Amino acid sequence: MKKLLLLIILLLAILFASCPSFATSFVLNNVLLPDFETRQLNPVNVEIADGKIKQIVDIETELSHADTRDGQGQVMMPALIDMHSHSMGNTSLDYSDHQYIGIRGTANAMLYAGVHAWLDLFSDEDDIFGYRNEGFPDERNEAYVFAAGPCFTVPTGHCDFGGTRLISTPEEAVNELRDLRHAKPDVVKIVFDNAGRAPTVDEATFEAFLNEARRLNINSVVHIGTWGDVRTAARLGADAVTHLPREPMPEDIPQVMLENGTVIIPTAGGVPEVIRLHEPSEADLAASVLAIPMTDELVKAKLLRDYPVTERHQNVYDWLAGLKENDALANMRESMIALDQAGVEILVGSDSGNLAMFQGIGFHREMYFLQELGMSPWDIFFGATHKAYNFLDLDWGLEAGKPAHFTLHSEHIFEDLSLSTQVETIYLHGRKVEREPLLRYAKPGFFQYLRLFFGLEV
After folding, report:
1. Locate the Amidohydrolase-related domain: which residues (predicted)?
2. What is the pLDDT of residues 28-66, one digit of tens each?
3. pTM (predicted TM-score)
4. Which of 24, 84, 168, 361 is 20 to 30 A from 408 (CA-CA)?
């Protein structure tokens, strides 16, 4: 009997040793709490109890606990959310190779990078909603997924491949949305893009879609291609538009967006990143995604060998040359400054899964380039935290009673966003996250690839 009892104890010890740390009650002294209204960093002590914030007190008020930790004067950052990603892994420059990591891999890559959640804006709806509904971050270390599920578009339109819902009439838009609502999407996404040759929904279908989403109380996110698309989307009541046109912005756009309460998820980082890697100088390479240790940790080397961009990738090379010739970066900078100064709400989304925007690291590069394009780090972090919570109706934040999701950063991060990739200390539900085990899924080896290949995991 004693031997059996000892064996049970040993097995339980092994089980708990292999699980995330569930010591979720402790005191964290000497941290800086950002106040986004005053733009001040306030020195505080924090007590965490049962995975939630119990109290936050002034640095002069001493807190004690059996488990007392020193925050070493670092910034205690509220949970960061990537508001535009695709759970498809990472791609090479010419899309000839792929690092597929699945939804779980994306969840692990995000948390490894210090991103607590992401909004998936186009995946197989059964897979993504099924995974979301499991609520895995409540029991293990990985980021939360919020999801749109399918992309709504016309036949042969943008994103008409797998996981798409095709709509060509107002009646189809209404019926498809009413059917999707049973899956409880966190947002719905539609393409209204008049920038290229691909067809897009007509205005009557677009308006019917937005009206029905509003009636169902589901926030709408619109993939746009031109500033005219932005104007129409805002006028018809879109909750958000995503992407940033690279042409000069008409002067009326910020006001139209403000009057209609439309926010923007610009996904502005991808173009500056690949332009930087087009005929780069040594300084360009040193400031690119290729020079960041987190990139090597999360992305397989074969994909990274595609860069820098040379004439061996002729189509991409010529496209980037054209963007340079047309002053795309200058146009983007002027647009971002005008939108920000006008008070348009700007959320942070990487559009990871696309060129040079890799899962997890892409979010940091988006923040970095938003600063390069003229935004204040304070505004960027506000958009990546509290504004994102508001859009997704999340009761998150660093206040008593809320879940203890946060990261610790150098205080200089509010001056230089290139420092954000140096994050190492991550808490989820008060659990201090061990990052190394996350790489099993974020950068899978042979056996994990087999599980993905045979559909044993998504």
Report:
1. 75-430
2. 999 999 999 999 999 999 999 999 999 999 999 999 899
3. 0.93
4. 84
